[in-house]
Amino acid sequence: MNMNKINEQILNELREIVQENRILTKKNELYSFSFDASFGEYLPEVVLQPQSKEEVSKIVMIANLHHIPVYPRGSATSLSGGPLPTMGGIVLDMSQYPKEISIDKENMLAIVTPSIITSTIHEKAEKEGLFYPPDPSSSHVSTIGGNILENSSGPKGLKYGTTKEYVIGLEMVTPTGEIVRTGGKTVKNVTGFDLTRLIVGSEGLLGVVTEITLRLIPNPAHKMTLLASFQSVVDSGIAITNILSAGVLPAAMELMDKYCIEAVEHYHPSGLPLDAEAIVIIEVDGHEASVNEEIDKCSEICQSFPGAIVKVAKSEEERMKIWKARKMVSPAITQLGPTKISEDATVPRSKIPEMIEKLHQIRVKYDLNLVVFGHAGDGNLHPNIITDKRNIEEMKKAELAVGEIFQAAIDLGGTLSGEHGIGILKAPYMRNELGPALDLMKMIKQAWDPHNILNPGKMFPQKGQTKVVLTQND
């Protein structure tokens, strides 16, 4: 289905829905919505900032009638090109949607609008003695709407699962403009198809979310954190699998290789061991007695490796210092070069050592500044390539390296993405992982969105698209 351009008649129809000050058409305004945290710049024709579900519904109806593409957008922290308006059309800026949050302590729920910043949910829940586990690195700037459509998670995904485990109800506008609700406020709900989970992780292809009901859990009573340093990256991966095999389920297990350690210490000295090839940060939580027992078990396993050193945080201040060092990884490695290619290939836990070894082989093969960190406890590694997009030759090598990273994850029984989503960057590899299941996904998209107006150009490979492209913009 070919997309149409926005003419003056359509623009006047949109003006009848949205106030003039929330309609952006000037080129300098549009450029602010042409990019995200990934690659490529695509200029929309108009940016709309709706203030109600009714406005969203009317906008989508007009777009559906005239075959105009609509691109929902939150804070645009996407690392896969999720909100990029690749075919022009309308950017629906949901970051300016009314911000509402209600904590239902009795039922342990949070009811929020999509524009709420994720860290706000953490803060509000904690004040009530409750806990919202999904905690992506961008939680202080990303919106909950974006987190839901990308199914973001973070360090706590190992023990507590990803965003989809906590979304139990949605209000949304369909691609044809209907306002519908899925799920509800009950934790158990098996009435009909689970449309709520279908929407979570759908990357804006199936609907525009206008309200979310989140399940909360009691805040853990006690936490302990250790930092283990290793003389071999592969040893660190084996230690992770040994701990999980021993029956210990930490809240988080984070890996940083030596290149990350060096970057953090240069950027913000944090006392990390510069002589280590890798470190693993492990946090356990729960009742105090079990936490003490499990942290001792983790220490014992880590210390069994040659040259390994374990430091257990003795105070909340020490614990927070360790986690601050982990949070510093992304900004620290950004200082190593002007362009950061962030990936999140994920493999089964037992394949972590093999994947780490493969990543280091790719680094050597292409002579790239490739660093590895991530949520290793659930197999979600973040290989980052630090380069300069002005260096076309090196970017061509980066394209080949990224392709090998994706294929390595698939070959090891893993997946293209653990939390960053598919967007445009990983779409060429979807058939490699999903095979005929990709056609079922296309059928769902076609049934829900017959004119393909919601976030077109994402997730599904476009005609002739066979690999990730980092060196050209449309």
Question: Mind explaining what this structure looks like?
Answer:
With 474 residues, this protein is an alpha+beta fold. The chain is built from 16 helices and 18 strands. The chain has helices spanning 8-15, 27-31, 53-66, 118-127, 144-150, 157-160, 195-199, 233-245, 258-267, 288-303, 316-327, 329-334, 352-366, 392-411, 430-434, 437-448; strands at 23-24, 46-48, 70-73, 90-93, 101-104, 109-112, 130-131, 167-173, 179-183, 208-215, 217-218, 222-230, 252-257, 278-286, 309-312, 339-342, 369-375, 380-387. Helix 13 (352-366) packs antiparallel against helix 14. It is globular, with a radius of gyration of 23 Å. The model has no long low-confidence stretch (mean pLDDT 94).
Structure summary:
The chain has 474 residues and is α+β, with helices and mostly antiparallel strands. 34% of the residues lie in helices and 19% in strands.
What topology does this entry show?
Blueprint lengths: L7 H8 L7 E2 L2 H5 L14 E3 L4 H14 L3 E4 L16 E4 L7 E4 L4 E4 L5 H10 L2 E2 L12 H7 L6 H4 L6 E7 L5 E5 L11 H5 L8 E8 L1 E2 L3 E9 L2 H13 L6 E6 H10 L10 E9 L1 H16 L5 E4 L3 H12 L1 H6 L4 E4 L9 H15 L2 E7 L4 E8 L4 H20 L18 H5 L2 H12 L26
Parallel strand pairs: 2-4, 3-4
Antiparallel strand pairs: 1-2, 5-6, 6-10, 7-11, 8-9, 8-10, 12-14, 12-15, 13-14, 13-17, 16-18, 17-18
Helix pairs in contact: 8-10, 8-13, 13-14
